[in-house]
Amino acid sequence: MTVKEIPLIIGGEKIRSKSDTWLDVLNPATQEVVARVPVATNDEVTAALNSAAEAFKSWSKVSLTNRMRIMLQFQQLVREHTQELAELVTLEHGKTLPDAVGEVGRALEAIENACLITRLQLGEMANNAATDVDTYTLHKPLGVGLGITAFNFPLMLPAFMFPAAIACGNTFILKPSEQDPSSTIRLVELAIEAGIPAGVLNVVHGGEAVVNQLISSEEVKAVSFIGSTAIGTQVYDLAGKHGKRAQAMMGAKNHMVIMPDANKDRAINDLLGSAFGAAGQRCMANPVTILVGETRNWLPEIVERAKLMKVGPGTQLDADLGPVVSPQAKARIISLLDSGVEQGANILVDGRNCQVKGYPNGNFVGPTLFTGVTTDMDIYTQEIFGPALCVLEADTLDEAIAIINANPNGNGTSLFTSSGWAARKFENDIDVGQVGINVPIPVPVAYFSFTGSRGSKLGDLGPNGKQVVSFWTYTKSVTARWFEPDHQDGSTVHTTISLK
Questions:
Q1: Per annotation, catalytic residue among 115, 168, 283, 390
Q2: Which segments constitute the Aldehyde dehydrogenase domain (predicted)?
Q3: What is the pTM of this model?
């Protein structure tokens, strides 16, 4: 089988890199090499920067209407290529095909939000703010934007970034994950096919050196990052050092609280789906549940249902979860699961030695469930990013809220209850940016902004919704007075700053 080479995209063209360093892209279910991706050279990164900077001169002057029309065409092409995109995700990431199709849907939501740019990128005006003086604001594009995305959503995360940035009149350089780049490249190809002009959207690949070169460049004006806390902090700090606007959506440790009055079957099924779906490789997964009061008696049923979940390759349509992305990821996950046992947690479902028939080399980790977990254990303090669930118990909702608020992360949390009073108390008292009420993964629809908080986010503005326009534009205020052609103002010199 011929192994495809992942291209760079610079100036609207697919470019074969001249790099001496190429990385293998593996099918996580088989370890088969399915593609090779280059680490871009300094000259190639410079070419992408120059291409984006040059394209900005004309693209920033394109009308809102024409930018919107391109986004409308783009969303239609993505919709038509849903299956193709999903299959590429499954091939290189490993998530199940239904889950990958769902990711295409979430990416579409973000693209559709960019289609609303004619309504989102509106300024304000005060007519006669002072006598014969008008004041108004303009939301102007910044210049070249940079997006750096993680492996776990190779379609959705780029869609959180470049469609809105480009719709606002910026040009863009995308630096996707090297672990599963094919679906991202295909997404960009569809965007260019939709009519995005040459140089407006570029793609380069690489690690820390490439990222540092991009952030440090004069051309880049704003940086959007989604990934781990360690790397996100470095990116944010470097961007700040160089005077860039930045946002970093980072790690998490989300909690689902289950109250005794919750719908039992729905709560258990949603808990297991959110903890183990995508093999736990979601920043919005629920790797911790807090069983309140009598719900601790539901534990045997939670355990039994977890044991029934099917592990298999992403192409196996009845699989509940596929492999994790790489052997390195599997080794890290197993090490953390081992530490849970070593530190005294009770492992009631053990997926460490998961074997899938016909796939002896796959990166499979089965659903794993711990009880007796304390908040100082590594399995609680660290983001496992694998199919592991830590079960804690609390006597009251107040105790559960206190546990969550003591955790440094603030990405998402959920409460399952039938009580409106409990739901309202939870959403008001909890110190977390995204809250689900009987919703296990509280990522809002894309016309609302992604609002993680505390240790899960750096920067004031999140992707999507109205905030996305604030991030990708700057506000220019204009105060204007127009005089009649033969206006005479006399000889008085005005030395005050007042407008009347």
A1: 283
A2: 17-478
A3: 0.95
